[in-house]
Specification:
Shape: globular
Number of helices: 5
Order of helices and strands: HHHHH
Oligomer: single chain
CATH architecture of one domain: Orthogonal Bundle
Number of strands: 0
Structural class: mainly alpha
Length: about 90
């Protein structure tokens, strides 16, 4: 077994930017909405959005919850975000 690098979703950074912009939030406002003030700083959001860093799973889950989309929609390059964010009536909690 080789130690090849794990494939990263190529469209993930653009999807994260799209979510933030559709919600009309600054990067710092997004951190507050995600409820991750203790874990993230603005520079991390910028690095996620530019593809420099890949967000950890718990951050992706917070994005998915905020946008009311499924996690696979964020992770799969073949899937597009819906036109409206957050998606209304998508999930029940």
């Amino acid at each position: 077994m080789g130690k090849a690098a794990r494939r990263k979703p190529a469209r993930l950074p653009a999807k994260l930017v799209q979510i933030r912009r559709k919600l009309k939030l600054s990067q710092n406002e997004l951190i507050r909405k995600l409820g991750l003030e203790e874990d993230l700083e603005q520079q991390y959001i910028s690095k996620f959005e530019h593809g420099i860093l890949e967000p950890p799973l718990y951050v992706l889950c917070a994005y998915a919850d905020l946008a009311n989309v499924t996690l696979d929609l964020l992770a799969r390059d073949s899937m597009k975000l819906p036109k409206e964010i957050p998606v209304k009536g998508r999930r029940t909690r």
